[in-house]
């Protein structure tokens, strides 16, 4: 058995350590010097004293970190943050008070020096073009190189033979295959381009089936099934309320229904910033396990408790906020169309997601690689959230993708000195399609249009066939505008997960499992549904350009004929709407039909009457729509927006870049994998003339097969007589 890499050269100091320490000392010295020069309450009489103060601050940070890790186990990140800032303030005050060559004033003066020094250091690194993430990872990389001895070459070097395999799965949320192709040609993703150019990796497309949403694709990729996720959010007749996958309690419930305990990350894997856990042993910033916190002893202690790292993040986040305001203003000034408002809370969310959470994810993944976790999966949402508001191919969206390529490059550096030989798979959960929203086309929201059509020529209650009681004319409650069309619903997810982790409150604490901020924070809890005075007459939800309509007062789905009898103008009005392409309804015989303006198609038999309404949606449209309409919690009516000749769609929510249904590039997801791992041709299907993997379940099966090939999962047992003890 070979000696583990961590045991070799444990005390060796590398040139990178010396360079890193020297740069840290110089930058801290300069930052303190400039800050002291600006703050009137602190003076320095001997310049060399600044070097001593910088050393004291650095040594104090190193000595305090183990204490803060232990503190984080008891009080979470908030306790580590408060204690760390207080301890650093004490160290800085002692250095500026008792070291020779300083005259210090009050605590506030010392605090001002610390904050200003951190701001100046962050700005200085930005001016010289230093990587923010490298700054955050500097200490971790130095420690990893010291334990590893020397940096190892890329795969195939002599040191690789002695290291066990590992797998890093990176989800680039929302990146379509055409978008990645464009970024490769534009030179925006040099790390991925280098891998493809060298032949170390291959690139293909996989088809994200309807609903092409993050919860559906993520649970399929991590757990191998999407049958319990019909949209981004949906009405559950069993629960009598909306299920919102951005709410931790609902994400946990969906995972519990789906997981068989053998997910992609079972057997010691780590999930970072994903919606579901994949049965990972360690879950960090995972939506379905948000109430469990970040976990003890993680790299986040250094990230949150070091004032220089934290203030740097705050400074850069403020810059990201201002950049978003400027870019949104530029779109309006130049008359870019289509576009949506980029004001409100979105600039703040972009700053938090694209700076603070990106840095935190970078450090968490890097630490798990250094620790030698067998499988690590992380979801990076930066591109997806900007593209929702700016557009999939707009410059700011592509710049976000460029930044994510840089993060992957950093993890490549970490993997080179990790105790495992990590193979890296990069994939997306879906793509995005551009287009003006339903409201921009119709002049009213999707919900308001449904309500308007329902009110026209309403049938008398006595004449309505079908189950259940007739709808009330007085005070029938309909799902509110905010719930149906809130444009920031998906964007609030990572922030809420992080807030739950920061609280470290546990499953029994007040508010555990709920949305803490954002448009879903006031959603009714499941235990309150039974006491609700009345179910709404209609629930309307948009997941990109996939729309669903439920009639919750009925104990079962209504057929298309029952809907026509009760609300004669609803179905014809939706079918004829200029923003709607297809309405899927169920017949009394169980058949599912897609209805368009000039024809219809039986999704089971393929029979077309008039013109085929699915002709513009590609060869997978019929199969995808029949499948999603047959899911347990699918809407009574399922809609897909119109798609034009260049792939523009109309989101049923307020997003200019959207995904969920069909049309454009939203279903063309990315899969980039190491060339030496097999992708058998018999697993591929033909979609619009291209051979691709179809569905997140197929990608999950291939990822698990690669785990077996790498020795990270038990091989499939040969078929034979069953053993008496029941073992396979």
Automatic annotation (TrEMBL):
<dbReference type="InterPro" id="IPR002591">
    <property type="entry name" value="Phosphodiest/P_Trfase"/>
</dbReference>
<feature type="transmembrane region" description="Helical">
    <location>
        <begin position="76"/>
        <end position="95"/>
    </location>
</feature>
<keyword id="KW-1133">Transmembrane helix</keyword>
<protein>
    <submittedName>
        <fullName>Phosphodiesterase</fullName>
    </submittedName>
</protein>
<feature type="transmembrane region" description="Helical">
    <location>
        <begin position="21"/>
        <end position="42"/>
    </location>
</feature>
<keyword id="KW-0472">Membrane</keyword>
<feature type="transmembrane region" description="Helical">
    <location>
        <begin position="107"/>
        <end position="128"/>
    </location>
</feature>
<feature type="transmembrane region" description="Helical">
    <location>
        <begin position="299"/>
        <end position="322"/>
    </location>
</feature>
<feature type="compositionally biased region" description="Basic and acidic residues">
    <location>
        <begin position="470"/>
        <end position="482"/>
    </location>
</feature>
<feature type="region of interest" description="Disordered">
    <location>
        <begin position="458"/>
        <end position="531"/>
    </location>
</feature>
<dbReference type="Pfam" id="PF01663">
    <property type="entry name" value="Phosphodiest"/>
</dbReference>
<keyword id="KW-0812">Transmembrane</keyword>
<dbReference type="InterPro" id="IPR017850">
    <property type="entry name" value="Alkaline_phosphatase_core_sf"/>
</dbReference>
<feature type="transmembrane region" description="Helical">
    <location>
        <begin position="48"/>
        <end position="64"/>
    </location>
</feature>
């Amino acid at each position: 058995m070979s000696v583990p890499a961590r045991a070799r050269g444990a005390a060796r100091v590398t040139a990178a350590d010396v360079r890193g320490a020297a740069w840290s000392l110089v930058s801290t010295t300069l930052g303190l010097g400039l800050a002291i020069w600006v703050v009137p309450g602190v003076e320095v009489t001997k310049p060399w004293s600044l070097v001593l103060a910088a050393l004291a601050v650095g040594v104090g940070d190193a000595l305090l970190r183990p204490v803060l890790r232990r503190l984080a186990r008891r009080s979470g990140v908030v306790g580590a943050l408060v204690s760390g800032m207080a301890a650093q303030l004490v160290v800085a005050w002692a250095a500026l008070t008792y070291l020779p060559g300083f005259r210090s004033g009050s605590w506030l003066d010392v605090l001002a020096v610390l904050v200003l020094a951190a701001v100046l250091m962050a700005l200085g690194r930005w001016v010289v073009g230093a990587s923010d993430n490298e700054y955050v990872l500097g200490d971790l990389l130095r420690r990893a190189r010291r334990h590893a001895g020397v940096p190892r070459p890329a795969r195939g070097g002599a040191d690789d033979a002695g290291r066990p395999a590992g797998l890093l799965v990176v989800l680039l949320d929302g990146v379509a295959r055409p978008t990645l192709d464009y970024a490769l040609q534009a030179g925006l993703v040099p790390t991925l381009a280098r891998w493809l150019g060298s032949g170390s990796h291959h690139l293909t497309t996989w088809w994200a089936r309807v609903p092409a949403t993050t919860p559906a694709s993520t649970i399929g990729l991590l757990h191998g099934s999407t049958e319990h996720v019909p949209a981004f959010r949906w009405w559950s007749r069993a629960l009598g309320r909306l299920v919102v996958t951005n709410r931790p309690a609902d994400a946990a419930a969906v995972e519990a229904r789906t997981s068989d305990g053998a997910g992609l990350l079972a057997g010691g894997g780590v999930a970072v910033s994903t919606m579901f856990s994949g049965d990972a042993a360690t879950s960090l910033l995972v939506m379905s396990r948000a109430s469990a916190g970040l976990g003890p002893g993680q790299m986040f202690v250094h990230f949150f408790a070091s004032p220089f790292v934290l203030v740097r993040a705050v400074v850069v986040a403020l810059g990201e906020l201002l950049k978003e305001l400027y870019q949104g203003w530029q779109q309006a000034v130049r008359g870019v169309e289509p576009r949506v408002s980029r004001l409100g809370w979105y600039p703040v969310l972009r700053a938090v997601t694209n700076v603070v959470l990106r840095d935190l994810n970078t450090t968490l993944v890097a630490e798990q690689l250094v620790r030698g976790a067998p499988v690590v999966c992380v979801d990076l949402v930066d591109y997806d959230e900007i593209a929702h508001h700016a557009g999939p191919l707009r410059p700011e969206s592509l710049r976000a993708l460029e930044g994510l390529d840089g993060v992957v490059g950093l993890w490549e550096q970490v993997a080179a000195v990790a105790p495992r030989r990590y193979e890296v798979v990069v994939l997306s959960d879906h793509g995005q399609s551009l287009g003006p929203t339903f409201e921009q086309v119709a002049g009213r929201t999707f919900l308001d249009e449904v309500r308007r059509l329902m009110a026209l020529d309403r049938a008398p209650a006595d004449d309505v066939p079908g189950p259940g009681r007739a709808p009330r004319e007085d005070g029938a409650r309909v799902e509110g505008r905010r719930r149906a069309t809130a444009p920031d619903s998906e964007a609030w997810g990572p922030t809420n997960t992080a807030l739950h982790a920061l609280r470290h409150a546990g499953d029994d604490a007040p508010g555990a499992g709920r949305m803490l901020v954002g448009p879903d924070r006031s959603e009714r809890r499941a235990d309150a549904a039974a006491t609700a005075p009345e179910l709404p007459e209609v629930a309307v939800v948009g997941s990109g350009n996939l729309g669903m309509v439920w009639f919750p007062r009925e104990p079962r789905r209504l057929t298309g004929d029952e809907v026509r009898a009760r609300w004669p103008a609803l179905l014809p009005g939706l079918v004829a709407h200029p923003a709607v392409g297809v309405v899927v309804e169920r017949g009394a015989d169980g058949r599912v039909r897609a209805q368009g303006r000039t024809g219809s198609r039986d999704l089971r038999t393929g029979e077309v009457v008039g013109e085929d309404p699915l002709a513009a949606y590609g060869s997978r449209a019929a199969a995808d729509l029949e499948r999603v309409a047959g899911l347990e919690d699918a809407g009574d009516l399922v809609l897909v927006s119109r798609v034009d000749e260049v792939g523009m769609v109309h989101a049923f929510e307020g997003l200019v870049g959207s995904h969920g249904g069909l049309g454009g590039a939203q279903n063309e997801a990315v899969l980039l994998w190491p060339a030496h791992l097999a992708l058998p041709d018999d697993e591929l299907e033909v979609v619009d003339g291209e051979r691709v993997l179809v569905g997140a379940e197929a990608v999950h099966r291939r990822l698990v097969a690669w785990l077996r090939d790498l020795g990270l999962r038990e091989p499939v047992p040969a078929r034979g007589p069953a053993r008496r003890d029941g073992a396979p």
